[in-house]
Amino acid sequence: MSTTLDARLGEQLRQFRSDGVYKTLNFLEGPQGARARMEGRGEVIILSSNNYLGLCNEPSVVAAGKAAFDRYGAGSASVRFICGTLTIHRELETALARLVGTPSSLSFMSCWNANEAFPGTLLTEDDLILSDQLNHASIIDGLRLAKAITRCQTGVYRHNDMKDLDEKLGQATDRKIKMVVTDGVFSMEGAIVNLPDLVTVCRKHGAVVVVDDSHSTGVLGATGRGTAEHFGMVGEVDIITTTLGKALSGGAGGFVAGSAEVTDYLIQRARPQLFTNALPAPVAAAGLAAIEFLEAHPERVRTLQANTRYFREGLTALGFQPLEGDTPIIPVIVCETAAAIRMSQLLLEEGVFVTGFGYPVVPQGTARVRCQISGAHTTADLDEALRAFAKVGKSLGLI
Ligand SMILES: Cc1ncc(COP(=O)(O)O)c(C=O)c1O
Predict the structure, then answer these.
(1) d(CA 113, CA 300)
(2) CATH among 3.30.70.270, 3.40.640.10, 3.90.950.10, 3.20.20.140 for 59-296
(3) pLDDT tens for residues 243-264?
(4) Which CATH class is domain 20-49+299-395?
(5) I need a labelling partner for 73 at 20 to 30 A (CA). Which of 29, 150, 182, 279 fits?
């Protein structure tokens, strides 16, 4: 035990508390739905979950996971290439590729792993990868790793700024492969990437387009196929990464979807594929059932989209000014981190569970309470949440 280390960490933790930025974990006693039971508090409305389609506790999804325990046992007991590949992995990957509109897909333990894997595996020192300024942390770390492993060039372009991207790609004339990676929906803003212009710019420079659809799969497009469907561009994104941890069951597991060459090369060389166990069968089976549910019930996506409009309009009518957008991520900016945490505490006292985010998750001075809407919410749930926002917003002088 390092007492020096513990002393330093203890001091920093005390500082977090006194700055009002210390995070407290809340324990849920049952499955996530529109509402859940929170330890010590009883039932709360969940407005902070990636359970966009309400499939965490969908009976057919849960039953598929249980059946997979019986059929395949508790775990895969190996990495994929040794003896961890199960037929359920192939079924899941086929379904995911069909959903997002690519020839092939490959599963990872998480989308974090997928984003960590593809840049450092697919690129070399002759190449360049550019990333949107507001991309998810897993993409940022994926680029850092790629730079360290392969010595490829990395860079950042201004958020959704296609002129900046065009210029940066234009300067990279000596690069053999140019790759551009963006979130489909930016997780802290709820903004959607300008995909039509991004694809045009990338095609002009011969760059590979990579979109992380973690917050778009099951959410955007008439049938929930993601960012490409939203823009009528299915088949035009070269590589899509996405997760089972959000709309598709809320479990775990990530994907790289693209050409057969991309996924086969990742099977051969990606370290988070070669050196960690395969996705457990129950998780894979629940994810597959979630994809099948989505394909059979596109109306759930429409409910999610209608709920999103209803809640956004409700907040605006109360006098809040949520960041503009069309996605179920609806952030209310309150500037200081301590204010965001305070607001989320007061909302919890009113029975609404919604998390406040501050620095370093978002830039200093842009702390926010980030609402996330689900297709499982009823109008009564959303009305009750809006009443809580009205009360807390008035008590904090925000409206
Ligand atoms: C845009 C984005 N990419 C990747 C991830 C990581 O997904 P996973 O939970 O599957 O690791 C997240 C999760 O927060 C995300 O928001």
Answers:
(1) 29
(2) 3.40.640.10
(3) 999 999 999 999 999 999 999 9
(4) alpha beta
(5) 29
